[in-house]
Amino acid sequence: MNKKVKKYLKxxxxxxxVALFVWFLIIYPLVSFRGYxxxxxxxxxxxxxxxxxxxxxxxxxxxxxxxxxxxxxxxxEDFYIPYTKEPCSLKDSWVKVRRENGEYKYYTYLKxxxxxxxxxxxxxxxxxxxxxxxxxxRGEKFKDPGIKSVVDNKDGKIDTKKVxxxxxxxxNTTGSYTITYTVLDSLNNKTTVKRNVEVxxxxxxxxxxxxxxxxxxxxxxxxxxxxxxxxxxxILDMDGDNVRIVSDMDIANVxxxxxxxxxxxxxxxxxxxxxxxxxxxxxxxxxxxxDETLNTTECSSYTGKKKVYIPSIVDxxxxxGEDNFMQPFTMSWTSTAKGKNxxxxxxxxxxxxxxxxxxxxxxxxxGVRPIITIDGNTLIKGGNGTSEEPYYLSDYKKAKTNSLLNxxxxxxxxxIKGTLYRIIETESDGTTKVISESPLAKDGIKxxxxxxxxxxxxxPKDKNNVGYFINNKSSxxxxxxxxxxxxxxxxxxxxxxxxxxxxxxxxxxxxxSAPNTYDMFSAAEETGSYWLINSSKNSSLTNGISEIGAYxxxxxxxxxxxxxxxxxxxxxxxIVSGDGTYEKPYNVSx
Length: 590
Hints:
Elements: H1 3-50, E1 61-65, H2 66-71, E2 94-100, E3 103-109, E4 111-112, E5 115-116, E6 125-128, E7 133-137, E8 147-152, E9 156-157, E10 164-166, E11 175-184, E12 190-202, H3 203-211, E13 225-228, E14 231-239, E15 242-247, E16 252-255, H4 259-270, H5 273-276, H6 313-318, E17 332-337, E18 342-346, E19 357-361, E20 365-368, E21 371-374, E22 379-382, E23 391-393, E24 413-416, E25 419-426, E26 432-436, E27 441-442, E28 445-446, E29 448-449, H7 466-473, E30 486-493, E31 504-510, E32 512-513, E33 530-531, E34 535-536, E35 544-545, E36 561-562, E37 566-569, E38 574-577, E39 586-589
């Protein structure tokens, strides 16, 4: 066989192979597809022969889907995407019929995978004026921006008046609303576009409404509670368009000259990242006063800009009224100093004369109520401002069922076999550090213990020590199976405990310990005494919270106090239900 013949044969084979590929990949699928189209059209024609009363009149269009033709047995065979067992789309395929020039004309659209009919099946394109998602403040006037244009690929420009608009927006009620725009082309291909309108409540608007003609809240209002970073706060006043809030209760007991470091090192770091984004740096009153000028409502000195501070006597005085919410039942520091070594503490009873203030040495530990300024444009997501349903903001995020407890945040509540705890923080090993909300009790009677001898250094290994009782006897009052043993540090001071001023520490491996006065949520949540882990080498000093919720000082031999426990929950504890709030704490399983 000569070279020319061989070359011819090879060329013939190549052509044949190409032809087969073209047939199998292009021609055969198209032939099958066109056959399906003809079958659909004939089926639709039979449908209307049998049901002539359904034929459209005037300029109307009647549509029958491939699904209806199958279910009505007008088509016997199944339509498949070529070379597969996947059926053609039943819902997206249709035949439309319209009367034109006195005769009925049929338009068939079939969709089979990548293959589709060339007939016009796309609805017009609607272009809106403005954004598709709009957010407005409750009470704000709203006018629909409307439609910019409508253009169809076959019919060209369509009059915007032919668009049907449905949906209403109640600007006096918060929530999500939808405005729907619908239009048809000449072949009844429909397009629907939606605009979402969110009616929200901005914090500044709500507070302005609540205050009315007042500049700040006074007395003990029932509607100024707000939930921030999983802690209950009270709305104090407005500063321009921003809102100042103050913790409803003391967070910890700290020596006055250590407060700013504690606010930065402990409190601020325990706020959620979402909460920190809402804070506006602000200047706060830090004036000095004397016993003769304690009734002032005018501040004479301010700090530089800070993220967090504590209230001054001016803040307390301006809130004056029956049962002033700025006067706690505990002894709480104000930012107002009397001199170099003294500052004023406020409380609502057991004070001298007509003033709620006592001047005390700055080295002492008393309550800290942080004050914060929040961006007034922050959205209120829910609540009505009461203590049971405080306003909550965009920083609040509920836990998912079956998620791990150690993924949650400082300040949230968890209930274990009837005992309520509060999350302090998650440890690096995955355990969750918690503190019991109240002193332990049995049958309604609070548990109490005391130091048997004069040695007041906290020691869980000494049977005569408060630390031993807390670690070894708490199991009589709470379920211990959720907790693990952990190394804890006992801080020891030369005299009065002071933030970051311990002279030494001792480590013990225990399941439960007393709270550290500088831990989050270690301050009194209600009246009732309890011991603290902080120890002094001066054995006459009692390190605990008294029955009136104040840090105790002075000689106190054989003092009997209650027990609040700090423990570490296992790393695999999961959330079963609850919101993590005081009213609806998390319920968990292990």
